Amino acid sequence: MEHFEDHHKLEHDYSALLEVAKGIEQPPIVNPYFKKKARQRYSTEEYVQGIRAGNITILSQAITLVESLLPRHYAQAQEIIERCLPYAGHSIRIGITGVPGAGKSTFIEAIGYMITGLDHKLCVLAIDPSSERSGGSILGDKTRMETLVHNPDVFIRPSPAAGSLGGVARKTRETIVLCEAAGFDVVFVETVGVGQSETAVHSMVDLFMLLQIAGAGDELQGIKRGIMEMADMIGITKADGTNKERTELAKSHFVNALQLFPMPESGWKPKVYTCSSVEKTGLREIWGGVEDFLQFTRQNGYFTENRNRQSRYWMYESIDEVLKDSFYRNPAIRDRLPEIEQEILENRKSSFVAAKELLDIYFDRNPEQAQ
Amino acid sequence: MEHFEDHHKLEHDYSALLEVAKGIEQPPIVNPYFKKKARQRYSTEEYVQGIRAGNITILSQAITLVESLLPRHYAQAQEIIERCLPYAGHSIRIGITGVPGAGKSTFIEAIGYMITGLDHKLCVLAIDPSSERSGGSILGDKTRMETLVHNPDVFIRPSPAAGSLGGVARKTRETIVLCEAAGFDVVFVETVGVGQSETAVHSMVDLFMLLQIAGAGDELQGIKRGIMEMADMIGITKADGTNKERTELAKSHFVNALQLFPMPESGWKPKVYTCSSVEKTGLREIWGGVEDFLQFTRQNGYFTENRNRQSRYWMYESIDEVLKDSFYRNPAIRDRLPEIEQEILENRKSSFVAAKELLDIYFDRNPEQAQ
């Protein structure tokens, strides 16, 4: 975005906070006489009432406002969120990560069906900063969850389209507020684990679930650094037919690995489950594990403490993102930065003197004055 | 520090960059006629020449300048560092972490003696933000390394006194420059692992060594999250006498644990060693491992790439620290922050709206203008 002036004038519009999806593109239409039906515009009051009544159409449009790039949409979206906040928070938020092929969609479909049978209302969101909205994300992709999508107690929303991870995470967190106000009491946030997506998801959920498939004994080698330590629960999928033996073996590998990690902050020792979305086995055990975790962490205070910390975390993250944004987009900084990096790499300048030089430029100070 | 005005005037002196140890306090003296000998003052040129000649007295005083709080000392220190930079970099930097009781000092003493016998010049530094200089840090404490301290090829320096970890880390990195210019070709940076000390040390060394003692089979439980994954090498100490069997068992636990982690970026699979500083066993193997690691990472380019990344990291870290410092010390922000945190915790405001409100205050913007 090239509309930045120096930080004193601050014409920049906190794009890190405001960064939203591009408008949804309509597919090309063959019939030239087809008139696009104008999307109905609601007042803030109508949105809020509609959401609270559980009206899915209105909820979807409100989320589209949240994801919109237009400033007037942003303004209304923030009003809606603020008015929904008092009704939010009453759900269990579960993060689900697993590489493509781990059977995430099938798992969510199967366990989602089971959960709604237990009188819950489920909302499935996704974080995938590499998704192209018009192309359809493989996550939260309605076409992959064929029965779930027809279930009136389930709401599925694809990931907001490509943008910074910070932007996608913000929109997802705000979407959770709206979904909770609409009465959804179980929220799944799924991710394939591109970049730092797991960390973002982990920072907005109560329980983080890692899905794995049994490999050739080498399951653990493929896992990204730090993911195992984030997991409150591990599920090994496709425990059906001839694959059962391999999943049991994989389970023992993970159980051993988990013994080697320190006790998590929650105080809850993560467990490993096997399951089959096809044979519908293991799902009740997994959901039982979720409920046990919930009861335990509510009792020892970790649940609330974690949510509070997450709220503060997102405020501090946003502040940090904008402060850095303001600095690194400053034209004088952009000008000088490549040379200064070169000076550091060639040992002509220490990292700290380089930093000070750039900070002097940014804060418009005379170097001698700084001392 | 209460001398901050708003960020436009910027009277703050980048204290995050400048934060240094308090002046060294002299112990109380009984004899009232004892005159403190004035520390000799050198010119920058004399410092640089003295350091390059390997003069330990002059090196020590230069480091004291680096650690000093006084602006004129800071200015001269930076000149000295800048002039020593071209002669720095020619050493192997090794981070050593281990809980108190792991036998770090004894290990450093024993392996230090061996290393100097191989024609190296060793410098032992420490990062311990909780240390009180006048009290004497247990790290780099000369009284605990009784033979090493008399070795003319060894230079030991306690950790700079309590201050922010960022400040301590900066001073240590600058001290490394001076020591390398003075001809020291092996640098140890030790830490007990308070807070994020290991991360700071890891970001300034070529090889990170974790020292452990054999426990009751529970060694791994005590390790802080993420430390195992930082280690390029693990040494299990006190493998002497009746303890040998336990150290072998501990070694197997660590070997198994390491199998479960992904390959590190270096491409070097970390190894586990046992050693006894008392019986002087295992030390040659460990040093052989260090040399193998060096040769391997120099050959595959990781050594240089890592150093470059570290240099850039410290520049970005410093910038980030000052940007945040400027924000959080702003009086209007300090005023508003506690209330805003409360509003978030009580779900009266979303994290993002809270961030935006504070940013508007800081950048002195009218909220409506921001849109």
From the N-terminal CA to the C-terminal CA of chain A, the straight-line distance is: 34 Å
* Quaternary structure: homodimer
Radius of gyration of chain A: 23 Å
- Overall helicity of chain A: 40-55%
Shape of chain A: globular
Low-confidence stretches of chain A: 1-27, 132-138, 366-371
Question: What structural class is derived from the secondary structure elements of chain A?
Answer: alpha/beta
The ordered H/E elements of chain A are: HHHHEHEEHEHEHEHEHHHH
Sheet with the most strands: spatial strand order of chain A: 3-2-4-1-5-6-7
The mean pLDDT of chain A is: 82
| Total E-strand runs of chain A | 7
Number of helices of chain A: 13
Strand content of chain A: 5-15%
For the largest interface, the chains and their residue counts are: A-B, 72 and 72 residues
Largest sheet of chain A: 7 strands, parallel
